[in-house]
Design goal:
CATH architecture of the largest domain: Alpha-Beta Barrel
Shape: elongated
CATH class of the largest domain: Alpha Beta
Pfam families: EAL, GGDEF
GO molecular function: cyclic-guanylate-specific phosphodiesterase activity
Number of helices: 23
Number of strands: 19
InterPro entries: Cyclic-di-GMP_PDE-like, EAL_dom, EAL_sf, GGDEF_dom, Nucleotide_cyclase, Rev_trsase/Diguanyl_cyclase
Helix content: 55-70%
Low-confidence stretches: 397-405
Oligomer: single chain
CATH topology of the largest domain: TIM Barrel
Keywords: Membrane, Transmembrane, Transmembrane helix
Number of domains: 4
Strand order of the largest sheet: 11-18-17-16-15-14-13-12-10-19
Strand content: 15-25%
CATH superfamily of the largest domain: EAL domain
Protein name: GGDEF domain-containing protein
Length: about 650
Amino acid sequence: MAGFKKLITLQLLSWLLFSLIGTFFVARGFDQAVSEAQVSTQTMVTRYIENKTLADVSPEHIELALNNGKVFSTFIVRDYEGKTVLQIATPNTLPFGVSLIESIFNSIRPQFAVNKAKDIKIEFVINASSQADLLQQALLLMFLISALVAFIPVVYMQAIYKRLNRRVSMTVADAVEVYITQNQQQSLVSSDFSTDDLEELGSDLAPSFNRLAQFLKTKQEDIQNAALSIKQEAYKDVVTGLGNRNMFVEYYEQQIESSPKKSFGALAMVRCSELQIINQTRGYQKGDDYIKSVSEIIRHVSGTYSQSQVFRVNSSDFAVVLPNVPSKEAEQFGDTLQARFTQFQQNQELSSVANTGIVTYESGKPLGELLSVVDNALSMAQSKQANAWHLQRESDLVNNVSAGFGNQNWRRVIREVIDSKRVKLMMQNIMPVGKNVKAYAEIQSRFTTEDGQMLPTASFLAMAEKLDMAVEIDKLIVETSIEIIKTRNFNEKFFGINVTASSAHSDQFVIWLERRLLKEVNLSSKLIFEVSEFGLQQNIKASRRFIDMVHRVGARITVERFGVGLTSFKFFRDLKPDFIKMDASYTRGLEEDKNNQYFMRLMVDLAHRIGVSVFAEGVESQEEKHIVETLCLDGVQGYYIEKPKEI
């Protein structure tokens, strides 16, 4: 297309050049014709007056002869003294182009004629209108012919260009079709140009298509690498850097379930039992550190087994695949992992670290079925002791006792805890901000096995709710707390006791708690019952009934983990709690998170308007404590303020 534009420009310049040259020669012809006319007219006038005197020349005759104005535009007769005897002027306007040429060449000039006696002198200017008309016609004809000569090739070349462009496009399209059809990305393509239409262009197109093939191959590799990188990032856990659940599922389906080779091994599921408690009491940053430490322990222990794989399948669970590991070696893996967890527990002052469920597998076994079995094994491990493991054996599967064995064992363990009252109470103070703020100490529960081993608190309470035993556990906690408060003579302190939502919504528990608190009139005003915001939302009517009862006996209510649910302020106002605890997620990185600061400031303002105090939990640093104080909260709780301690 650029070449065609150059052709048009060249033709246009040629036309202009030829037009200028043609104009010059036509103008020269006009000048020559006018000069010849002037010479001829001068000769004629000279002969006419040659032997005549002024008396012989009749002015009337001359004037009559020149009136038509076709020969002279100006005619002046003078006597021997130079006086004008006759003057005739017929103005003759030339066309613009002719006038311009005439002015350049000065073709039409005054002419003179004198007789021999010199008594007649004539000055005249010829009328060149006929020559001007011829000049104008010649110019128009010349411009027209030169334009045709210049632009007919352009039109013709344009038509040729379009036909050639179409042919080339069709030829290239055919070449691309051959290239795609025969899929020659891995070899040269010159042999593919075998049709008649492609033979002429094949030698020229083949090198370009070879380069295109190499370019596409390179781009395809880049795209594949980029897609693999994106997939790896999407399949990677952010905190630990391990593969996530999606990668675990893909690995199992490709390497185990759908593998054509016979294989066997062990699958271990490790559950971090303290994650929820650490998040709530120490903050999410400490929770992430805890998860990282557990993942490092698992990777270190499993790294001694060939081709082992570790995945983080959810927030608290890790999946460990040990290929070609029999059950005996899987037991050794469990013992080693438990020993490392126990050592970490002692260093970090935790009640437990993680429990492990183990099950053996063979190739072709569906993942869903295997996860169900390993979940039972994990439930068994959690019901034993801190950091315990359990291997689900083949004999259990044959006897069909695995389906409910984990739940049955949990039920037995929880029943033993209730009957033996094996609950250990810890206390963590809430530090008030300001002199007039009333705060309290939160009572936290820990549960032990028969041999004194600490059970994972979160798993214990979750299983108690799942097995409908939460009411009995809450009764045990409340009863134990009241007895310790009375025994230790904590008359000046206030204590917070956690109650599950299922107990708060249970008529049986509400009636029991009201009667129990009425027996302790002096003590009731010292108690604050904590219920999660999410739990209160599940049954608003029952929640309001529970809170009204608590207020009626003189105790108070705290809505904990506030801000996690979708509670409207109307709901919050109607429940009329005494305190709210902002969830630890709002405290995490509070000094840098302007959104959380704005939300907490808003909640504090609204709560204070209706007489509710606001506490922050999970405070881990001086910076977080300072921001909380500037936001006018009423109290702070967390490991930076005070660690839980035995009552």
